[in-house]
Amino acid sequence: MQITAFHFQLIVLLVAPLSLAAAPLLEHDVLPVLQKNCMGCHGGLKQKGGLDLRTVPAMLKGGESGPAVVSGKPEQSVLWKQIAADEMPKAEKKLSAEERRIIKEWIAAGLPTVAQQKSAAEKPLLPAGKKHEPKSVAKAIDEHLLARLALEKLKPAPLADDAEFLRRVSLDLTGRVPKPEQAAAFLDDAAPDKRAKLIDSLLAAPEFGEHFGRMWRDWICPPELPSDMNGGKQPHGEARSLGTWFAARFNAGDAWDKIVRDLLLVKGEIKDQPHLIFYGLLGQDAKITPEGAARGVASLFMGVQLQCAQCHDDPYRDWAQSEFWSLAGFFGNVKGDFRKLEEAAGGAQIIIPKSAFKRAGTAVPVAFLGGESKSPQGNSLLRPALVEWMTQRDNPFFARAFANRVWFQFFARGIVNPVDDLRALNPPTHPGLLQLLSNEFAASNFDVKHLVRSICNSQAYQRSSRLAAGTTAGHAPQQVALHGRAPVRVMTADMLLDSLKLAYGDPKLDLRSLDKRDGNTSGESAAVGDEYLEFCRKFGTNEEDATDFTHGIPQMLTFLNHPRLQSGSKALDEFRKKNPAATTEQIVEWLYLATLSRRPTRAEMTEATAYTTAASEPSVAHNDILWMLVNRTEFLCVR
Known about the structure:
- By secondary structure, the protein is mostly helical.
- It has helices at 5-15, 26-37, 56-61, 78-84, 97-108, 134-151, 162-174, 180-188, 194-204, 206-220, 236-251, 256-264, 277-282, 290-302, 321-328, 383-390, 398-411, 431-443, 448-456, 459-462, 476-481, 493-504, 531-539, 553-561, 563-566, 570-578, 584-595, 602-614, 618-630, 633-636, and strands at residues 268-269, 334-336, 340-343, 349-351, 363-365, 489-490, 637-638.
- Strands 1-3-2 form a 3-stranded antiparallel beta sheet, with no helix packed on it. The chain has a two-stranded antiparallel sheet with strand order 4-5. It has a two-stranded antiparallel ribbon with strand order 6-7.
- The longest helix is centred in the first third of the chain and has 18 residues, at 134-151.
- The chain is globular.
């Protein structure tokens, strides 16, 4: 094997006497402790005694008491001495034993940072400015992840078997399990490239756009939709139409920059443009506000959290209040709500309002985020200048934010996490990987399907969710965090509903619990919404953590007791009608394929056939088996 520079750098790291990965790191380990306990007094907004604890240079400079830390010498470091003596922090709550250990070991290790981890993982491995074949991108993705796993002495999980991969990629790309006949055809296919072909077919399916459209709708919509102040009506229908608008754009193959351009420059009436609701969802009382637009656009399309800087300089980040309002100024002349929106030309400045508390009344020039010197001049429309700057290939935020969010979608954790907190002090777990994906996305002219295809063809995406041989339980979370094993995620409400509709052959599946006397939810005063809205309310998941199993007693009781889930499957009836000579074994196999996308094991088949044989009515037994399968965690989760 030829030893490349990539391999040489990896070997050097593996044989180093003290791996930086073995010690606490400033960004990953130390700063969370300091932010929680110390930066209220020693951060960007307030620096008591002249001490800033946000960076290593600032700590070495120190304050009135001298340097806060001495590299390699905790006992000589003022920071550690005050923590050890319970003199810092001053609040009643002191640092925990674990937090103390992190600080002390970090100082003793020489103040290591992520930026000091000089590994091949920092390099994208593929040249920027050129679109590469998905297989080449997938291979580079795997090189990045395997290098980091080796550095941490973790073994990657084996590849998922065909059934596990089939179900996962179907749910991830189309938001539903495959149909039984599709599952059987894939499992029986012996072609070596069948996984790549499956990915291509799913990306070409209309369900792809529908699924991605719903995801972006949910990322945009607040937890509680704004209400009509007169009647209290919430725009649920309009919000769904926003998802449909995204779906049409994704299915048409539109580039991400064009989609975002049309979304951010929209004006007119919602009857003609369903995406006009976007600004109303980000504002106040369903009306657009400059500050709401700035927060939302920065989070969704630039991966930046600006909300703290709305009222003051952010003590934990580098964003000043003036930068927040400079961005908000682009939306200062946009007026309307989620029904109608218009924009007037205006000067390139904004006055900080009284609601911002600090610096109220100050005039701030409109400017791009991150120190960009250009800003619109004169009496002109402002949004086009922002969108033009933001959607450039070399914009420092746009491609990175989308690539990181797509990675989060598939792995339940961004390369930068949270996904909207891209900043120097919250570095990527795999900096070269994020740069690779950003470069590739930009070079492809922001081709969404190309990015998705590249990720899904990687071994990283196709690894099993089961523990690798030799992996201890203590290392299991780290193995998932570093993408050496697939996370077990909970189906979103949309995934679950569409998968149930397929299994039961009922496109209008209704799992509401209605009081027939007044049409209300049993035991509640609020009127029941339609079947889709009520299902999403009950089976909604944690948007920030797909591994968080949020289903509890109400969800369990619905699945166990709802008469619709006990009354049989129209899809199964259709299968039996088309196959009147089907044996019990064939019906049981169909049930497993329709729900779990796999064939039953020998033990499962034996158990199911014995249950059917003992039943007085086989069709009732078949319905019972279906009910049992949809109540399994294997059905409820994406593995």
